[in-house]
From TrEMBL:
Matches recorded under SUPFAM superfamilies: Ribulose-phoshate binding barrel (SSF51366)
Species the sequence originates in: Streptacidiphilus fuscans
MF GO annotations: tryptophan synthase activity
This protein's name: Tryptophan synthase alpha chain
Assembly, per entry: Tetramer of two alpha and two beta chains.
Physiological role: The alpha subunit is responsible for the aldol cleavage of indoleglycerol phosphate to indole and glyceraldehyde 3-phosphate.
Any one GO cellular component localisation term in the record: cytosol
């Protein structure tokens, strides 16, 4: 699969006059084999696109919930080969669902940029979200990604000035990840008044879909964001459902139910 699947999926959601539901779960959580089951559950619930996180020992942009999940995954012994195996298992079972890897830059750089791009594409992934890779330093990665048909999604924030937005969106492919609030990931009671303004400013610089994340945790918030964004990204709320569950199976059912609620929310523009 390539970036074309991601583009088509987001275009199909737009044609249905709704936002896409994009879910995030880290590989290796709650267990290495259980991660694919958790991702399958959110797909079964109605997720259009899935981001599989590559756990990192210093997840500086993530809040306590995802940090906890990353710590569990690392204690489970997660390696990049296991992340790629999770991608492969999910894509083989769901060939029409785009799967991206969300990762900090250091693991990719250490693994080898060309090698990572080739191995991700071979596993069926459609691209990467790289929140801490400066676009000025991204040319080698972008070339490797383009060679294998992978999307490169960059993150913009409410603090991003218009000139900076134009630079970032000119380099990115697939979609633009708009952080709804300043700060780390995590569920919030409000999704951030700055998000709509950020989406509007970003759209002035690009024709790429603009998808909003950081803070959405329920159907009402999903509907609120879906009113102005092309996609609604949810991560911490899924992770928290698994953390709170009394058993692994109960966790999978909990994220499936949440995905179904959110899938209804993104259709209530």
């Amino acid at each position: 699969m390539t970036n074309a699947l991601l583009t088509t999926t987001l275009a199909n959601a737009k044609a249905e006059n709704r936002a896409a539901l994009i879910s995030y779960l880290p590989a290796g959580f709650p267990t290495i084999p259980g991660a694919a089951k958790a991702v399958q559950a959110v797909i079964d619930g109605g997720a259009d696109v899935v981001e599989i996180g590559l756990p990192h020992s210093d997840p500086v942009l993530d809040g306590a919930t995802i940090q906890t999940a990353d710590d569990i995954a690392l204690r489970n012994g997660i390696r990049i080969k296991d992340v790629l195996a999770t991608v492969r298992a999910v894509t083989e079972a769901n060939p029409t669902v785009p799967i991206l890897v969300m990762t900090y830059w250091n693991p990719v750089d250490r693994y080898g940029q060309a090698r990572f791009a080739a191995d991700l594409a071979a596993a069926g992934g459609v691209g990467c979200i790289l929140p801490d890779l400066p676009v000025e330093e991204a040319d080698e990665w972008l070339a490797a990604a383009a060679e294998h048909g992978l999307a490169t999604v960059f993150v913009v924030a409410p603090s991003s000035q218009d000139q900076r937005l134009a630079l970032i969106t000119a380099k990115g492919t697939g979609f633009v990840y708009a952080a709804a609030v300043m700060g780390v990931t995590g569920t919030r009671t409000q999704v951030g008044a700055m998000a709509e303004d950020l989406v509007e400013r970003t759209r002035r610089t690009t024709d790429l879909p603009v998808c909003v994340g950081l803070g959405v945790s329920n159907a009402e918030q999903a509907a609120e964001v879906a009113a102005f964004a092309d996609g609604v990204i949810v991560g911490s709320a899924f992770v928290q459902r698994i953390l709170d569950a009394p058993s692994e199976d109960a966790g999978y059912e909990a994220v499936r139910e949440l995905a179904a609620e959110l899938a209804q929310g993104v259709r209530k523009r």
